[in-house]
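Design a sequence for this backbone.
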């Protein structure tokens, strides 16, 4: 037994409870003789619970038969007061009946020793009980430590589940939970949806790692800059979200403006000084779900940084949904026979003779009716649907031109012009395909020309130059449309095989009244002639405009002064009765 009595066990507190002082003294002496250093006695059973509250023993040696409160009552009181944290109990009793023993063990006693007892047996059983208690204590401590570790890990996992692993910013889940809480408030919630456009440039030039570090740095800086009570987090790669109680549209716009100006300032990053171009969509509402509120802010997001801040409105959303429906309706429009061509004549400014026409696209939607080209063509270019529409336009215009030639309805120098989108022009094989179509329709190349915009050329200048060179070498004339409104530059003009410059209607409208417009038109005309190109003026609507153009040497004009765009039959009826010379 002595070998099993460890130093730790000797230090454990033991309480002897018996109403007879002699029994208490006897047990205390016995235990102290064996090396137990913290043994105490108590004769008032009703004070056991209070004593345990002051100094909890590891073991109680408890007599069963005591006045006022017997041993069974003491164990019930300990269980009620401490539950699983109650001390171990060894019952000492002179009653050897099985009922007393079973009742004591049923109340949680570790052991039952019958009086008179053998000293060695008592010591052995005390050691056994303390050894078990130590084992329980160790396991309890291990459980506490494990529970603490689990709690810490749970908190860490919870934190990680609310944090973007790359930037360390709050993620979508954290933002949505913040919005959930704000949605319950009477004032409602608001969202600022921020797109950092400059991050894409950093990713392209310096890599995605640099872009991610930049977003993390900006996010941390914005979080410090924001007023208290606002929550910022990462919604997507370069998209941030600010969540806040709704302060009203005026203050929301003010906050968005301040943030945009702050981002546009200088920001040090990796030995660089960057300005952050950004766009902000703003939405707010009472009783609006978090998902819907974010959607509203995303819908309000401006398409370009020209107007960097926009608030959501029902009218804005209706317009965007209408655009979406129109975009969907564009798919397969050429195959559904909803497209048609109209033709606007081109006249020689000196003689008034018709020298050609421009084929213009029209869309008659079965439900919406006429859809403006200014609306659907940019959509088609953005979606890629312009490729199938462009193919239809080329084929339909060549079919019309073939019929007119076969019917001998046109002068021999009549040339039909077709607009070509940037995506068409920059597609490999465009020139070869166009020339093959002309050959299939048996059309002379001088009867057909294409018009491309400056911005279309700049989309892929090298590819555009290759395609235009093939067309020019074969005799197809090429015109630069809307000249002067895009990236006008002699550096690229002189390298392109073009035959015509078209003066945009923006310069023609005020040509008779404004000296500046006349100067610009005259400069473009002189430039074109210096490059051995013809000049076509668009949007000629008055005789005064026509006279100015004739005076400066403009070759060809088109506009309402001569004729509006006409359907095929109306154009053919108008053609023989074209206006006489204007000079």
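Sequence:
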């Amino acid at each position: 037994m002595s070998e099993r009595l460890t130093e730790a066990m000797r230090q454990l507190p033991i309480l002897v409870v018996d109403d007879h002082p002699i029994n208490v003294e006897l047990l205390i002496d016995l235990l102290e003789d064996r090396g137990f250093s913290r043994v105490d006695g108590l004769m008032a059973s009703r004070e056991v619970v209070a004593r345990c509250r002051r100094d909890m023993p590891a073991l109680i040696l408890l007599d069963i038969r005591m006045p006022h409160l017997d041993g069974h009552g003491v164990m019930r009181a300990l269980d009620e007061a401490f539950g699983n944290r109650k001390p171990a109990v060894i019952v000492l009793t002179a009653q050897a009946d099985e009922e007393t023993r079973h009742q004591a063990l049923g109340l949680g006693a570790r052991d039952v020793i019958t009086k008179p007892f053998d000293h060695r047996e008592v010591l052995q059983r005390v050691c056994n009980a303390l050894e078990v208690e130590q084992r329980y204590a160790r396991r309890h401590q291990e459980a506490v430590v494990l529970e603490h570790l689990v709690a810490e890990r749970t908190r860490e996992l919870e934190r990680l589940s609310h944090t973007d692993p790359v930037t360390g910013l709050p993620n979508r889940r954290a933002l949505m939970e913040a919005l959930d809480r704000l949605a319950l408030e009477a004032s409602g919630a608001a969202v600022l949806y921020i797109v950092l456009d400059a991050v894409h440039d950093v990713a392209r030039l310096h890599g995605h790692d640099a872009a991610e570090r930049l977003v993390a740095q900006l996010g941390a800086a914005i979080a410090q800059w924001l007023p208290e009570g606002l929550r910022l987090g990462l919604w997507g790669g370069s998209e941030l979200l600010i969540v806040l109680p709704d302060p009203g549209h005026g203050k929301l716009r003010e906050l968005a403006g301040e943030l945009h100006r702050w981002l546009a300032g200088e920001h040090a990053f990796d030995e660089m000084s960057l300005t952050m171009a950004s766009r902000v969509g703003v939405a707010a509402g009472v009783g609006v779900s978090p998902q819907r509120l974010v959607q509203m802010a995303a819908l309000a997001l401006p398409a370009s940084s020209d107007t960097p801040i926009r608030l959501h409105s029902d009218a804005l959303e209706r317009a965007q949904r209408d655009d979406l429906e129109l975009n969907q309706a564009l798919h397969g429009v050429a195959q559904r026979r909803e497209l048609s061509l109209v033709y606007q004549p081109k006249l020689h400014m000196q003689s008034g003779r018709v020298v050609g026409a421009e084929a213009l696209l029209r869309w008659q939607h079965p439900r919406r009716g006429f859809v403006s080209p200014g609306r659907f063509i940019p959509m088609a270019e953005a979606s890629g649907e312009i490729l199938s529409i462009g193919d239809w336009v080329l084929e339909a215009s060549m079919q019309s031109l073939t019929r007119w030639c076969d019917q001998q309805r046109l002068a021999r120098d009549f040339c039909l012009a077709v607009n070509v989108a940037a995506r068409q022009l920059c597609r490999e094989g465009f020139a070869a395909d166009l020339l093959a179509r002309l050959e299939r329709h048996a059309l002379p190349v001088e009867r057909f020309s294409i018009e491309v915009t400056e911005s279309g050329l700049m989309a892929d200048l090298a590819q555009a130059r290759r395609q235009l060179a093939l067309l020019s070498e074969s005799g197809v004339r090429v015109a630069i449309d809307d000249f002067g409104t895009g990236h006008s530059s002699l550096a690229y003009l002189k390298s392109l095989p073009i035959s015509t410059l078209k003066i945009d209607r923006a310069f023609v409208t005020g040509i008779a009244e404004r000296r500046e417009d006349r100067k610009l038109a005259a400069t473009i005309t002189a430039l074109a002639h210096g490059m051995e190109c013809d000049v076509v003026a668009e949007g000629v609507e008055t005789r005064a405009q026509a006279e100015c153009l004739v005076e400066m040497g403009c070759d060809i004009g088109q506009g309402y002064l001569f004729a509006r765009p006409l359907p095929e039959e109306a154009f053919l009826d108008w053609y023989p009765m074209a206006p006489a010379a204007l000079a």
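DSSP finds 23 helices and 21 strands in the chain.
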